[in-house]
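#struct-help
A.M.: can someone run this one for me? Single chain, 95 residues.
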Amino acid sequence: DAGLGWHTDRSEVDTTLPIVTISLGDACVWAVRRWEEEAPSRTRLESGAITLLAGPNRGLQHAVERIIPAPLFSPLSVRGRISVTIRVAGVPSPA
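D.P.: on it. Structure tokens below:
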């Protein structure tokens, strides 16, 4: 019954670089929107799904609205979802 509330990823030094996320385990409802007043676009992410926030979509607000049990498709031995996020973080090196 867990989820992840609405947010925008802005903690990186260079927010022009993409964010790639791999979903593993139970399915989920993933939603995106440009601003708070906009109706979100939703999709179901199954285990192995990859999302990419890049270019003009890099700043989208997004959320995991709910987890959906999907034991037949999960590589995990227990219920749950693992989200592996790949991004460039840290302080840039001097030129």
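A.M.: thanks! Strands lie at 4-7, 19-25, 27-33, 41-45, 50-53, 61-68, 81-86.
D.P.: also worth noting: The chain has a mean pLDDT of 89.
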